[in-house]
Write a structure and sequence with these properties.
The protein is α/β, with parallel strands linked by helices. The protein has a single domain, classed as Alpha/Beta hydrolase fold, catalytic domain (Rossmann fold). Helices cover 38% and strands 14% of the residues. The chain is built from eleven helices and seven strands. A seven-stranded mixed beta sheet has the order 1-2-4-3-5-6-7, with helices on both faces. α3 packs across α4. The longest helix has 21 residues. The protein is globular, with a radius of gyration of 21 Å.
């Protein structure tokens, strides 16, 4: 019996230690004891989660265009769109921004995927009475939420816009050589991070929190990931008065930015969605894609 214990006990202890390293810490839910405060209006979804939102533009009942905006990686609903108030009023635009699951003041969704994001958007639109059809505009990582809308709720869309959207480099609908060339243009730390998110997602938390090697350049806001034109735009944005605090990670990094990487670059994430675009013609959905 003793020899067995000598063998089994270290294995069990090693397993516990390994699980502790891989397991993310509990999420600090908004409004919970010790968690971040609630400062935004929220709706309660069918599954019990809460989704925080912000309304802007003209009054909803007078709007000609009702647009749901979907924020980027490591961002929130509170980052303002670079559009003038005069233009919004002239065109009659109502803007509805929301914190995606796990970001800002929206509850995390451990089952978050492309479909769940689309259904969150649909339920948000219904609870705020946007009507049968509305527009969606996704920026950067928010692009995969737009792909989800095109696949799962195309009948609810009056139009869809993709602004510098992310792509999945393992998306089979792209030419393989083109995907490889684009992937190689990423800085090396970003290549490693996306490869792990796609191939061994269980190790992503460990990779993103270790200190020996640089992990996601995007998560670290490393300037190498930006082009010359990007830097010019960012410098102009940084020169603007900043009154908005970015609360993207306040509930924890795993359910916000880590989960984003897992959904966007996971296996099969975009396979169905790209093929689903064939439904758009019959639904008369307009697409504007800016890369």
């Amino acid at each position: 019996m003793a020899p067995k214990l000598v063998f089994v006990l270290p294995v069990v202890l090693l397993g516990w230690a390994f699980q502790a390293i891989l397991r993310p810490p509990p999420t600090k839910l908004c409004g919970s004891p010790g968690g971040p405060p609630l400062t935004s209006p929220r709706i309660k979804l069918r599954d019990g989660r809460h989704l925080a939102y912000r309304e802007d533009g003209v009054q909803k009942d007078k709007a000609r265009y009702k647009i749901i905006t979907i924020h980027a990686f490591d961002s929130t609903k509170d980052i303002p769109l670079p559009v003038s108030k005069e233009l919004v009023e002239e065109l009659g635009i109502y803007l509805l921004a929301f914190d995606r699951a796990g970001y800002g003041e929206s509850d995390p969704n451990p089952k978050r995927d492309v479909k769940s994001e689309a259904l969150d958007i649909e339920e948000l639109a219904d609870q705020l009475e946007l009507g049968q059809k509305f527009y969606v505009l996704g920026t950067s990582m928010g692009g995969y939420s737009v792909w989800g809308c095109l696949q799962y709720i195309p009948h609810r869309l009056a139009g869809a816009a993709l602004v510098v959207p992310v792509i999945n480099y393992w998306w089979p609908s792209f030419p393989a050589e083109l995907s490889r060339q684009a992937f190689k243009k990423q800085v090396v730390p970003e290549q490693r991070t996306l490869w792990i998110a796609h191939n061994v997602p269980s190790l992503l938390y460990l990779w993103m929190t270790q200190k020996w090697l640089p992990s996601s350049a995007a998560a670290m806001h490393h300037p190498e990931i930006f082009s010359k034109h990007d830097m010019e735009v960012l410098q102009k944005m940084m020169a603007m008065p900043r009154t908005i605090e970015n609360k993207s990670r306040q509930q924890g990094t795993y359910e916000s930015i880590h989960r984003d990487l897992l959904v966007a670059f996971g296996r099969g994430t975009f396979r169905r969605n790209f093929h689903g675009l064939s439904t758009m013609k019959s639904e008369k959905v307009d697409i504007c894609s800016c890369c």
